[in-house]
Design a protein that fits this description.
By secondary structure, the protein is an alpha/beta fold. Helix content is 39%, strand content 18%.
């Protein structure tokens, strides 16, 4: 694969100067991290460099947000915050518009991005490939934004525990769905119910169709995302009291906010305080489904469920997997 087709010249320069043999020997633990980084304390993210010459205190702080929609939209949404961040840190802050997850990861790896929001899956690649350190997720005083995989049955059904569903009609949504298929495949077996072995998977197509299928009796149970279920209840499409939830997974986080591992600790800690102390104005709360703050998280603890589901499906978040995803993205772009 020709990296020049996927990444900027900055990556090529970094790659040429990748960890020397002496660095590799000096690093007692790396895990899935790229060879540019070390994880001596085994918290799964890149350590802050011990060589002070490698620490950065940027005169201009570069910030971005995951390119889930038009980047210009999010630049406007985050304008009140970037103004706060500039005033709080005493640095000029610019919003860097990125057009893809790969571009965002490469920007942090090459040193052009200091802090930004990464989508849930790409967060793990950013950690391992770019030395990103997740520190927050949008949330409220009660916790960070996210969703759970839930397994629902009708309230008047005889099913009380997961093993009761062996041989029954259980709906998944679609093969590509995290909460609707990949998470059940990874998490249900340890709860005593193995998909395809204990029941034949019935694909409904969508979460709402799974919920309605349980309501109508087409399915005995369904694996669905909690946020979809409760939104349907909030809209009056269903009465949540007509259902029983017999399994709830740990919470899957939404997009993370992560900083570059090589920020100078004093500056980094000041910047983090600026994030944590900020409260979203009304327009940001509306844009982010009621979230009003940056809620503290760690990659080791709060992304464990994401890693578990991926690994159960044979996926990794290392360089080889990243290169495969980049190649797929390039092929998809060519096909358009």
């Amino acid at each position: 694969m020709k990296l020049s087709l996927l990444f900027s010249a900055g990556l090529a320069a970094l790659t040429m100067g990748m960890a020397s043999a002496s660095f590799a020997q000096a690093c007692p633990n790396r895990g899935d991290l790229d060879s540019l980084y070390c994880d001596a304390n085994k918290d799964m993210v890149a350590d802050t460099p011990t060589d002070k010459s490698k620490l950065k205190t940027p005169s201009t702080l570069v910030f971005t947000y995951t390119p889930v929609e038009d980047p210009a939209v999010y630049e406007e949404i985050f304008t009140p915050f970037t103004k706060h961040l500039a005033q709080c840190t005493g640095k000029r802050v610019v919003f860097y518009q990125v057009q893809s997850n790969a571009a965002e990861i490469e920007a942090m790896r090459s040193g052009r991005l200091h802090v930004g929001g990464f989508s849930t899956g790409p967060t793990a690649f950013a950690v391992n490939i770019a030395g990103a350190v997740p520190f927050a997720v949008k949330g409220t005083a009660d916790g960070f934004q996210g969703y759970n995989l839930i397994l629902i049955v009708k309230k008047d059904s005889p099913f009380q525990k997961m093993s009761d569903l062996k041989g029954k009609k259980v709906a998944h949504t679609a093969p590509s769905s995290n909460s609707g298929h990949m998470a059940p495949m990874a998490l249900f077996p340890k709860e005593g119910l193995t998909p395809e072995k204990d029941y034949k998977i019935l694909f409904s197509g969508k979460h709402d169709q799974s919920v309605m299928g349980v309501k109508s009796g087409d399915y005995d149970a369904a694996a669905v995302a909690s946020d979809v279920f409760y939104r349907m209840a909030g809209r009056g499409q269903i009465n949540k009291d007509d259902f029983r939830i017999i399994y709830t997974s740990p919470k899957f986080p939404t997009s993370s906010f992560a900083y570059a591992h090589d920020l100078e600790p004093g500056f980094r800690d000041k910047m983090l305080a600026c994030f944590y102390d900020y409260r979203y104005p009304a327009a940001m709360q509306k844009a982010f489904d009621g979230a009003d703050r940056f809620y503290p998280v760690t990659y080791e603890k709060d992304w464990a469920i994401v890693r578990e589901v991926a690994e159960a499906g044979g996926e990794k978040f290392n360089r080889a997997a990243y290169d495969r995803e980049a190649e797929k993205a390039k092929a998809k772009a060519k096909a358009k």
